[in-house]
Amino acid sequence: MEKKTATRLDIARRAGTSVSVVSRALNNSGYVAKEKKERILKIAEELNYAPNPVAISLQKRRTKQILFYCKNVDNAFNIQLYKGMLDEAAKRGYLVLFNGKVEFSDIRNTLVDGIIMQDEVIAAYYLKNYGKNYHLPVVSAAYGEAAGVGKRLGKAGGQAGRQTAPLVEVDTYRVMEAALDWLEKRGHGKVAFGTPYPADGGNVRTAAFLARMYERGMKNARDRVIAVSRKDPRLAEDPRLLSFREEVEEDINLVNEDYFGKGKLAARLFLERKLDATAVVGFNDEFSLGLIRGFQEQGIRVPEEISVMGIDGIDARKYVSPLLTTISLFPQEQGAMCVRVLLDLIEGKKVRHITHTGFRLMEGESVLSRAAAFRKR
């Protein structure tokens, strides 16, 4: 027969006192005579008393748990973001739960103290449709997309540019500028950009690419954007896009992106369109690794014949040859900062609306200067 779990009532009966006195002794709150407190603690130990964590959370109005909503659990960047959250939360006695579905209908039944969102697109969707009725503290990782979120989410997004959740942001507009400037110093003035999103979809990285290219007098800059999306008229009926679920689902913003697969297709499109570029910047590292694989499958050598650069700084880049040159967004540091901001918010402290985190070039082997490439020919 299974042994009954001891309760505070059992302790009170053994100690000859009330449940309220037992609670004060166990919680170390309120006055209890020293001798009586010691006796209560001894009885609790003898009975192998273990407090109910749900009951404790209800009493203290804290669960010591936070929740990370992330639609793409296969993305290495998101996993590193989560790792940073775990490490930082542990320092402050918190657990970080992971929800791999962007499904908020059961949020009321979830016992957590706050939420971290994967990006500002998902944060805007949540705040518009659920957050107004359920007031949990929310913090979001961000990449400078707030201005374009409303356009990309349409009616569901509402006034996304005015979303109220605090953001922990890496300015990917500046990141793209830094990537293009670094490539230019190595002789790559003619650069293409590969992205899984429409060229006119309001994405910050695309906007930064086009602005920089126009500044350099490149009037055909838009032709250098390889948008692997059915919203590109040239690809609207392309059967190769039907293999990507995100291209056939109506709610594109809530479906996982196959960045690697789209990167491979982007390499083929680059060659089919005979783009006059010596380097390609990928939307992120997984997309860029797909570019490298796609070029290699077509017999194009990277970086001798085409240079490839990424954005993210994921650990997985070191397992691919050539080693991808990228600009690191330091995902673990960003994840840790998301936790710091959220826990400060939970504790009633003032937090900034936008907390910025940094980025840094990580030079690999996938970019060759034009001078070096010329010498190798």
Automatic annotation (TrEMBL):
Pfam families per the UniProt record, alphabetical: LacI, Peripla_BP_3
Superkingdom field: Bacteria
GO MF, any single term: DNA-binding transcription factor activity
InterPro entries linked: HTH_LacI, LacI/GalR-like_sensor, Lambda_DNA-bd_dom_sf, Peripla_BP_I
Alphabetic keyword roster: DNA-binding, Transcription, Transcription regulation
Positions of the HTH lacI-type domain: 6-60
PANTHER family assigned to the protein according to its UniProt record, in alphabetical order: LACI-RELATED TRANSCRIPTIONAL REPRESSOR, XYLOSE OPERON REGULATORY PROTEIN
Identification of the protein by name: LacI family transcriptional regulator
